[in-house]
Amino acid sequence: MKKLSARRRHPLAALVVLLLALACTGGLYAAFAPAGKAQADETAQSLAIDEGKKLYAVGCASCHGTGGQGTSDGPSLAGVGAAAVDFQVGTGRMPAQQPGAQVPKKKVIYSQAEIDQLASYIASLGAGPSVPSEEKYGPEGADIAKGGELFRTNCAQCHNFTGKGGALTHGKYAPTLEDVDPKHIYEAMQTGPQNMPSFPDTTLSEQNKKDIIAYLDAVNGDETVDPGGLSLGGLGPVSEGLFGWIFGLGACIAVAVWVAARTAKAKKS
């Protein structure tokens, strides 16, 4: 009896039982916890799509169609992605107040939660650019000098070299980029709203977009060094040359007229 009792009380028995218990607990967690979390995420996403569909029916369907297929008053939204919704609705451009050459930025009428729901519904209509995370458009790791080079090559023709904006044709214009949320600038490059071409990652990489946003923040930020004098709108050589011709040449003509008048008066005397 003593030998049997000693075998049952082997010092490794408790350790083996503990290891078996831990293995079972870990196995059960691995089997059920991820599935539960995934199911919860799927449920939340489904609810967001349902709520977004309700908002869409009230504020968007009259122009874009009941299923986002588009009408004569608005384009199809299939495949535009959540980023397009976050940009257009998040800047107040949509819903549009009235038709025109270009839809301007205005006061936002939806909360961010409602915008997210609308974006979820539109994203369900077809794959498209998603809303970027802050890591993609934040200043960490950005190259401002490279961003300036990229901006002058790809964007300055319309927005001018400091992002002040500029006129286009037929009543259209490139809006100013001052005080624009970096997320919305990134989304605009992704989706190409209105007259702007899109710049997918195959054209401008995520790092390129980050660099451009950092450059715009540098030239339009509160800490920008003002060199003094008249900025002339920051439009560059066009406005500066026009200023020189009008005032510089005008001053030369005025001086010439004055000298001629003084000379004629002196001769008569």
From TrEMBL:
It comes from the Bacteria. It is found in: Cell membrane. Residues 1-30 form the signal peptide. It is a multi-pass membrane protein. Residues 47-126, 142-220 form the Cytochrome c domain. The chain crosses the membrane at residues 242-261. Its EC number is 7.1.1.8. Pfam families: Cytochrom_C (PF00034), Cytochrome_CBB3 (PF13442). Keywords: Cell membrane, Electron transport, Heme, Iron, Membrane, Metal-binding, Repeat, Respiratory chain, Signal, Translocase, Transmembrane, Transmembrane helix, Transport. It catalyses: a quinol + 2 Fe(III)-[cytochrome c](out) = a quinone + 2 Fe(II)-[cytochrome c](out) + 2 H(+)(out). The cytochrome bc1 complex is composed of a cytochrome b (QcrB), the Rieske iron-sulfur protein (QcrA) and a diheme cytochrome c (QcrC) subunit. This is Cytochrome bc1 complex cytochrome c subunit.
